[in-house]
Design goal:
Elements (H helix, E strand, L loop, with lengths): L4 H6 L8 E13 L3 E7 L7 E6 L5 H5 L6 E10 L7 E12 L14 H5 L9 H23 L3 E2 L5 E2 L11 E2 L27 E3 L4 H11 L1 E9 L12 E10 L3 H22 L1 H10 L4 H9 L4 E4 H11 L15 H11 L4 E7 L15 E9 L3 E8 L4 H10 L8 H5 L8 E7 H9 L20
Parallel strand pairs: 3-5, 6-10, 12-13
Antiparallel strand pairs: 1-2, 1-4, 2-3, 4-5, 7-9, 8-9, 10-11, 11-16, 13-14, 14-15, 15-16
Helix pairs in contact: 4-6, 4-7, 4-13
C-alpha cells in the first residue's frame, strides 16, 4: 500500500532522503519547458503535497497535460523544499495515471459560489471549503462522543421510527407502506385505518430522541443520544433542514443549573478540541469564510457564560431603545434578532436565557412555582442566536397529565412515558444541540445546506 501523505507531512524527518510511493488526485498543475509542479492530495491532509518532476521522465509531456482531479501513483524521493510553503516535496522518478479526469471537470482552480457547489454535492467534498467543513464535522462529532464518554455517559441509540411526537408540534414525516395509488383502507368514521399498515399504527420519523433518552436516564443516570432527526417544517431558510443531527444528553437527579453547567463545559471542550485537531481547516475558515472566527471562538473559551431569566431579557430588550422587526413583549418567542442582540450587544458572550413562559415551550418542561413559566433554557451565542435548548423535565405525574390534557394530547399515546413517573420518579433534565448549527458556529458557514453532506430541504432531495 502507498504511503499516506499525512504521515510524510507530520513526520518529515522520517522520510527525507527516502524513496516513497504516494497516490492521490492532482489539485494543481503548472509547468515550464523542462520541469513542472503538481499539487497532490490523497485526502489525508488539507494542503496538497508538492510534487516536482522534470523532462527526464518518459511521459513528461503527457504529465503537463493531465487534467485537474486525475488520479496518479507517484514514486519519488522526499527532499527538503527550498522555498515552498511546506518544508518538503517529492522529486518524482515515475508518475503513473490511475484514472484520467475529463477536461470538463467542474471544480477548476477558481472560486465557485456556494450556490453552485450545492448543485454538485457529489463533487463538492473535493473543494477546499467543503473538505474543511466535513473534516471539522467529523472532528466535532468525535469530540462530542469523547466529552461524554470521558464523563461516563452511556450512548443510547434511539429509534428513527416512532409513534410519538416528542415536541407536540405535529411537524412530522409520516411513514406508511399503504399503496397510495390504490384505495386506502378507512375506518368507519372515514379516517385512514392504520391497523392495515405495516406497524398496525400511525408512525412517523422521529423529531427527537428525548423521550426514549429519559427512559435510559432512569436506568443509567447519565446518558446521551446522537443521531438523525426529521422535521416536516415548511421553512426554506438558511437555518432549517428536514433532516439533521441532534445531540441530546439526559441526566437523572439533575436540575436546570446542572445542565447549563454541563452544556457550557461541553461547548468549550469541543471547540478547544477542534482548534487543536483541525488547525489548517480552522485557519482556512478564518481567512476565507469569517475573519473574526478565531477571535469569536476565543471569547467562548475564555468567558463565563451569562445567565438571565426570560423576564429580565424582555426588560433588557425593551430598555435598549432599539427598533426590532418583531415587537418585544412578554409571552412572545424570542426571534433571532432578539437572541443575537442579547448575546452580541448586551452580554457580549454566550448567555443562557431561563424560565420561559409555559405557553411557548413543550409539554414536558417542568412547571415553575409561579405557574406561568417553565424551567427551560436556551443558550444564545454571538453570531448565531440559539444554539442549545434544554429544560428540567416535569417529573410530577399529575402536573404532566394536566398539561398534556390542556394541550389536547392523547395520554394513551404516551402511556409508557407517563409510567416513568409512576415507578421511582425523580427530577431529571436534558438538552438538545442541533449538530449542524454547532458546525455553522465553529466554521463560520452561514447556510445549513453547506454543512450537511447531502442536505434534505423543502423541495430538494437530490443526490
Amino acid at each position: 500500500m502507498s504511503t499516506e501523505i499525512r504521515k510524510i507531512v507530520e513526520t518529515p524527518s522520517d522520510f527525507i532522503g527516502k524513496e516513497v510511493e504516494v497516490e492521490g488526485w492532482i489539485k494543481t498543475s503548472r509547468d515550464s519547458k523542462t520541469f513542472g509542479f503538481l499539487g497532490l492530495s490523497d485526502g489525508t491532509t488539507f494542503n496538497p503535497l508538492q510534487i516536482v518532476y522534470d523532462e527526464s521522465l518518459d511521459n513528461f509531456k503527457e504529465i503537463t497535460k493531465f487534467p485537474i482531479s486525475t488520479s496518479v501513483k507517484i514514486t519519488g524521493v522526499v527532499v527538503e523544499s527550498p522555498k515552498a510553503k511546506q518544508p518538503i516535496e517529492i522529486q518524482a522518478k515515475n508518475i503513473e495515471v490511475l484514472g484520467l479526469s475529463n477536461n470538463d471537470y467542474p471544480l477548476q482552480n477558481k472560486r465557485h459560489s456556494l450556490e453552485y457547489m450545492r448543485t454538485i454535492a457529489h463533487l463538492r467534498p473535493r473543494s477546499n471549503t467543503y473538505y474543511a467543513t466535513f473534516k471539522v464535522r467529523s472532528i466535532l462529532s468525535y469530540a462530542l462522543h469523547k466529552f461524554f464518554q470521558d464523563q461516563n455517559f452511556v450512548y443510547v441509540h434511539t429509534p428513527i421510527i416512532t409513534a410519538s411526537d416528542a415536541e407536540g408540534a405535529g411537524e412530522m414525516f409520516q411513514i406508511t407502506t399503504l399503496d397510495l395509488d390504490k384505495e386506502i383502507p378507512k375506518t368507519e368514521d372515514g379516517k385512514v385505518n392504520y391497523k392495515e399498515d405495516f406497524f398496525g399504527a400511525e408512525t412517523n420519523l422521529t423529531v427527537s430522541g428525548q423521550m426514549e433518552a429519559e427512559v435510559f436516564a432512569h436506568a443509567f443516570r447519565n446518558i446521551y443520544t446522537f443521531g438523525p432527526t426529521f422535521r416536516a417544517e415548511n421553512s426554506n431558510t438558511p437555518r432549517h433542514a428536514a433532516e439533521f443531527w441532534m445531540l441530546e444528553p439526559e441526566v437523572a437527579f439533575a436540575g436546570l443549573d446542572d445542565i447549563m453547567d454541563l452544556s457550557e463545559a461541553m461547548l468549550k471542550y469541543v471547540i478547544e478540541y477542534t482548534l487543536e485537531h483541525a488547525k489548517d481547516e480552522m485557519n482556512f475558515f478564518n481567512q476565507f469564510i469569517d475573519k473574526t472566527l478565531l477571535e469569536r471562538l476565543d471569547v467562548v473559551l475564555n468567558s463565563d457564560f451569562g445567565r438571565v431569566t426570560y423576564t429580565e431579557a424582555i426588560d433588557l430588550l425593551l430598555e435598549s431603545g432599539k427598533k426590532f422587526n418583531y415587537k418585544v413583549e412578554w409571552g412572545m418567542d424570542l426571534q433571532t434578532e432578539h437572541e443575537r442582540y442579547l448575546a452580541e450587544e448586551v452580554f457580549k458572550r454566550p448567555v443562557f436565557v431561563t424560565d420561559y413562559p409555559k405557553d411557548i415551550k413543550a409539554f414536558y418542561m417542568r412547571l415553575n412555582e409561579d405557574g406561568k413559566t417553565v424551567a427551560a433554557t436556551d443558550l444564545l451565542v454571538p453570531g448565531v442566536g440559539e444554539l442549545i435548548g434544554g429544560s428540567a423535565r416535569e417529573e410530577r405525574l399529575d402536573v404532566l397529565e394536566e398539561k398534556m390534557t390542556a394541550m389536547d394530547m392523547d395520554l394513551e399515546d404516551y402511556w409508557w412515558y407517563l409510567e416513568l413517573r409512576k415507578y421511582g420518579t425523580t427530577k431529571h433534565a436534558g438538552y438538545g444541540l442541533g449538530f449542524e448549527r454547532l458546525i455553522m458556529y465553529v466554521t463560520g458557514m452561514t447556510n445549513i445546506r453547506d454543512v450537511i453532506p447531502f442536505p434534505r430541504t423543502v423541495g430538494s432531495v437530490d443526490f
